[in-house]
Design brief:
single chain; globular; 442 residues; alpha+beta; five-stranded mixed beta sheet; four-stranded antiparallel beta sheet
Length: 442
């Protein structure tokens, strides 16, 4: 039985509407009050036609309605759909505004792709997203780090489950941390170093990844780290500390682009086209295999007037794909445009081979999240042969004149369309990076 997402804020007008429905179901005769029961088939038919926020409201009417909601498929299409987490939009000096239609809202928002709707997050979830540094998303979970303790934790916004992970301070050689509203001070090797909170992402951890859904218990968290330790570290469920990937021949974190778990192996993509693979049969990354594949010409000779913004590694319908995002060099670091090229791995030829299409039934989701391929047959609003992308470069987002880029890139038309009709100024005013949140069932 699937649970409704606990992260969404139910607006007062929605709660009030379903309160009236509840009252209308009560029938009073003399001193006796009974509740009118709709036929279950009829109720389920009604629920399947409601927006998600109304399905959540309908659950409050009665135990019978709640049981019908949870046992029917009225909301499963929404839960399994990709979601887009939207941080607050900075608005001058006065605070934040959001993108939903709920008047007066200052919360973070989340968009459901299948429903094409933007919802406010309820206050407790919104405060958590605003307060902590999001390092990525994987298997439907967000991976955060606490500024004050450098202690990462996993958070599932659908269930509000939270899993605390060990602190990174010992690995980085940090003995103390102090914090104020805008910056942090770290005591590193006997000296105080002052950093902004944005620096936490730039200098400590740039990407985070889960090898499996955490509720199963058998999972590994992998971080791409900087600062004192350059490279990959991992935490296996049950460990008491983080462990570095001990490999002197491994490139440092500045040359790592993406991570993927496929067929019980951990694959790490380096910028030179090499894939470093670790076996996960024992639950721990071990028995490293180094494979270098001939890189496509685009990497050595980028498209004219473009630079390589990012490389992504993703498993799609049994194939291992490499996606190169090319951004125009001109335009003050304008990353709202660009061209995507897709290659599949030819194991026998030991090379990347360009592909012209993903097929009408596949879409890719790239960004701060674990790169994912989904079947469009499961989601009516998901466009086939397209790449859904968000801005994921923290350094470029700080450059003056840069704009946050996200959209839908069609491999057929080689054009970008908007994911959602946000206000025109929204993308340049994100207080933090947006992030895809994709349940494991996708």
């Amino acid at each position: 039985m699937e649970r409704l997402p606990l992260m969404l804020n139910v607006p007062a007008e929605v709660a009030s509407k379903w309160k009236r429905v509840e009252e209308s179901c009560d029938s009073t005769s003399g001193n006796n009050t009974s509740r009118i029961q709709l036929p279950r088939d009829l109720l389920c038919s009604v629920l399947e036609r409601l927006p998600l926020i109304d399905v959540i409201g309908a659950k409050l009417v009665s135990h019978a309605w709640a049981d019908a909601v949870l046992s029917s498929k009225s909301h499963s299409r929404f839960l399994k759909s990709p979601w887009l987490l939207l941080p607050p939009k900075r608005h001058g000096e006065g605070g934040y505004t959001s993108y939903s239609k709920c008047a007066g809202s200052d919360s973070c928002c989340i968009m459901n792709l299948e429903e094409n709707m933007v919802y406010d997050l309820k206050k407790s979830t919104s405060d958590l997203v605003s307060e902590f540094a999001c390092m990525g998303s994987s298997h439907g979970w967000l991976i955060f780090s606490d500024y004050t303790t450098l202690s990462p934790f996993l958070f599932n916004p659908f269930t509000e489950a939270r899993i605390q992970l060990p602190s990174l301070k010992p690995l980085f050689g940090i003995s103390d941390i102090e914090e104020d509203d805008r910056r942090i001070k770290i005591l590193w090797k006997g000296k105080w170093v002052i950093l902004s909170k944005v620096d936490l992402r730039l200098y400590f951890v740039s990407r985070a990844f889960l090898t499996a859904e955490p509720t199963g218990g058998d999972y590994v968290v992998v971080l791409v780290c900087h600062f004192e330790y350059e490279g990959l570290i991992y935490y296996k469920n049950g460990d008491i500390s983080w462990t570095p990937f001990n490999d002197s021949g491994f490139p440092n974190s500045m040359f790592l682009d993406d991570i993927m778990c496929y067929e019980n192996k951990l694959h790490v993509l380096a910028v030179d086209g090499a894939i470093h693979t670790w076996d996960l049969e024992t639950g721990y990354p071990e028995n490293k295999i180094y494979n270098r594949y001939a890189f496509p010409p685009i990497h050595t000779f980028p498209r004219q007037d473009c630079f390589i913004y990012g490389l992504y590694l993703v498993q799609s319908d049994g194939e291992i794909l490499l996606v190169a995002r090319n951004v125009p060099e001109e335009g003050d670091h304008d990353i709202t445009t660009g061209i995507f090229d897709v290659y599949k791995l030819d194991l026998e030829g030991r090379q990347w081979v360009e592909v012209e299409t993903l097929g009408d039934n596949r879409s890719l989701f790239l960004g701060q999240n674990q790169s994912v391929s989904v079947s469009t047959e499961d989601f009516s609003r998901c466009k086939g042969n397209c790449i859904y992308f968000t801005h994921d470069n923290h350094y470029l987002s700080l450059l003056e004149g840069s704009a946050m880029g996200m959209g839908i890139y069609s491999l057929k038309d080689r054009k970008i369309s908007p994911i959602f009709e946000f206000p025109s100024e929204s993308l340049s005013e994100f207080s933090r990076l947006p992030c895809w949140l994709i349940p494991s069932s996708c």
